[in-house]
Amino acid sequence: MPEIFINGQPVQAERGQSVLEVALANGFYIPYFCWHPELSVAGNCRICAVQVEGRSWAEIACNMPVTEGLRVLTDSDVVKEYRKSILQLLTLNHPVDCGICDKAGECKLQDYHYQYNGASSLSRDPKVRSTKFHALSERIVLDNERCILCSRCVRFTREISKSNALGIVQRGDVSLVRAAEDHSLDSDPYSDNIIDLCPVGALLSREFLYKARVWYLEPTPSVCPGCARGCTIRIWHRKPEWKLNSLDPRLNARIERVTPLDNDEVNGPWICNKARDLKQIFERPRAERAMQKGKPVELDAAIEAARRLLAAAKHPVALVSTWGSNEELDAFKRTLGARVDSLVKQDWGPQPGERLDDELLIRADKNPNSATACALFLDRDDPAQALPEDVDLVIVWGEGFDFGRVPRGARIVFLDAYLQPENGHADVFIPISIQTERRGHYTNFEGVVSAFEPCFTKKPSVADAEALFAALAAPAKVRT
Amino acid sequence: MPNAKILMTFPVTATSHTLADYRARGGYAALDKALRTMKPEDVTREVTTSGIQGRGGAAFPMGRKWAVVHPNDGQPHYLCANADEGEPGTFKDRWILENVPHLLVESMLIAAYALQVRHAFVYIRGEFDQPYRRLAAAVEEAYAAGYSGERILGTDFSCDVVVHRGAGSYVCGEASALLSSLEGKRGYPRNRPPRLTVRGLYQRPTVVNNIETLSNIAWIISNGGEAFKKIGHEKDPGTRLISISGHIERPGVYEIEVGYPWRKFIYEDCGGIPGGRALKGIIPGGISTKILTGKEIEPLTLDNPSLQAAGSSMGSGGMVAIADGTCMVRLLQVLVRFYHHESCGQCTPCREGMGWLHRIIDRIVAGEGRPEDIERLYQISAWNDGTTICGMGDAAGYATSGILNKFRDEFEYFIEHKRSRFNGTLECLRSS
């Protein structure tokens, strides 16, 4: 355990660490662009300089191994002047079009410029012009003028996603990041991570392009339900104080974007593109009215009808959702578990073209909470088998059930969140809330429990499954 | 003073590059001697004793570079001969490749034996056509004669020599970029640490040496390190190939003993400056070394200690003579255009700085210079000093600040009068 001194203060380091890592871990901030904890050291941006005491020059910290007794300064005059020079050079050909850049507000170049330089450019010559909207893939657009060639995106596709989709062509100040061949980035299911990795506004999401200023948004911690990995994510939506009255209310309550929530236990700093596209799952048309045989009714009436059906049933069967939270599944078991035969249902399966599984994050089980569901309920639903003939009530919780498997004459209670034709075929249909409207926990395939928080408020005509189960199991109300 | 020769010891004829001629001159005797009578560490000891310094530009002692590699540490080692001779003004290695390719092959095999290398590489620049054909033929001949490949000369030592052609990048002459290029990657220089002798080609200890440096090994083994040390300057022993071009009567490649007087070299051996004009300046060792004026250079001798005392160095031995009447602003423009074109674009100071230098100097030459431009040129040079991954940023900075230091008045004149103080050309007009 070598001991080094940063700005005169002794700090414990580990063998093999770089000065940058030690400094960041101990609260000494050193600016950096190209360095990233999960990627190899490139040492090309040159901003992370420190001064070794006794030397008159600045050296990069990301490639400086710690040695016993090393003494570095992170804020000396030499370092300050050096940072100014690097920022002058980085902004030399940078278009400084922050006003129309999606990255503005969370851009390292912008932040460092104000923090460490602040001076206007010393150059009076024209800037190098380059491609502004290069479609790197179906999902990502590249602005080469903003690019500072830190090579983070290139290293990501080589070292993490292993698609080798990106490289740098040309050289000198006309170097360009380019896809190795057409569509090579399209087949990388982790491609959108390079948007987060980009320290400037060069790599942009085509979905999110010009949609919102990031300072009008706020993130809510959540969990991706896309597969059994349960990556922790941030769901970004408008801040309450920045809701726009002139906008359609639905636009004020939409998922603007999804980014990873750094989590060493589960996903590190990465998520796959499916998590970025959660709005495709959560923003499908919602079922907002309870129904009895296709006729809209009040929520309370539907719950009472379902309760009666259950009370009268001789052999009720329930299909338990693998999208339910730990709390909901537990509530189901406590309230209805003894009354009904419970089968664990796989709500979602792999979609056409979706990667089944890989070594990085993606799991073949496309449901977030199979772990808890399978731990609480022993029986699995087999989608290929019809339900037993003597079943007279089927409670279906969540999506992914083929109603053709219900025996003739059996009644159906259907609890789901989305607008589908099946809703009207059920004897009782009760709309329930979705993950972005409630709090709860999922347990991933390795047993790690992650929490999600509500982003939006649910409609009063929609039930929370946890409360609903208690109501269904309650004894008949005594009329007064 | 005596002028010993190590490399240019024979008349160049139509067949002097062939194996038959090379053997007739005593070729491959040193390889035989090394393999049969010496242990690998004996070879390294002779090289260390000789005190030979690298001829590629950095003048790093060859023995010290080799000493980092442990021949018996149980992992593969690699040797790479750097024939990516791209420094403007330098064309000395081409002479070896064209005229004594077998000397390089023999020396490489001896070096490979000393370092216990199974695969040795020659990275030759893509623009070299004749040198490549001569070298490839020499390697073929060496294989056929049993000098390379399996069980060389019947001993237990085996080594393959692989010739790889570059694709036309100046930066690939930098040792680590060369190895990246050899691995099939983009020719980007690597950060140090680790040094290449610790983790080089394919992450293994690798020695990269210049062609001329390597070519001295056969002589050192034949005659001993002590004999080599007696030649030349005590701190910089041996001879050097100097390629001289520019405003000089007899440009070409010369072998001189280190410590040879400049005056004698320029005015007697090379025939002086065309038209009897005065010597305005000399770029002594490739354009990345600092320029010296004619007055500064004439009392000096051709060796690193003397040139370093004058603020420059022997560099790669690519000398450019500049006659009186040459516009130094135009000269700097040519140099900076080269650096801008060749910057690999990996790290910030050089990628952005070279273009900036180029735009400023272009503007000055176009008559649109501003007084602050000179300060800006200095500033960008300083921003590249020691801040880049490889030495190219420094080199461009040295070239720029070197010329500005010595000829600042010409730049001021150009900016003020919007034209050159001279006729603005770089050609040396004999009639002047």
Structure explained in plain terms:
The complex is a heterodimer of chains A (about 475) and B (about 425). Chain A contains 13 helices and 22 strands. A 7-stranded mixed beta sheet of chain A has the order 15-14-20-19-18-16-17. Chain A has a 5-stranded mixed beta sheet with strand order 2-1-5-3-4, with helices on both faces. The longest helix of chain A has 14 residues. Chain A is elongated and about 85 Å long. With about 425 residues, chain B is α/β, with parallel strands linked by helices. Chain B has 3 domains: about 210 residues, Rossmann fold (3-Layer(aba) Sandwich), CATH 3.40.50; about 80 residues, Ubiquitin-like (UB roll) (Roll); about 90 residues, NADH-ubiquinone oxidoreductase 51kDa subunit, iron-sulphur binding domain (de novo design (two linked rop proteins)). Chain B is built from 18 helices and 13 strands. Chain B has a 5-stranded mixed beta sheet with strand order 8-7-13-10-11. The longest helix of chain B is centred in the last third of the chain and has 26 residues. Classes of the chains: A alpha+beta (about 475), B alpha/beta (about 425).
Give the CATH architecture of the largest domain in chain B.
3-Layer(aba) Sandwich
Query: Cα-atom Rg of chain A, whole angstroms?
Result: 27 Å
Overall CATH architecture of the largest domain in chain A: 3-Layer(aba) Sandwich
Helix content of chain A: 10-25%
| CATH class designation of the largest domain in chain A | Alpha Beta
Amino- and carboxy-terminal Cα gap of chain A: 76 Å
Q: What is the overall number of helices of chain A?
A: 13
Number of strands of chain B: 13
The total tally of domains of chain B equals 3
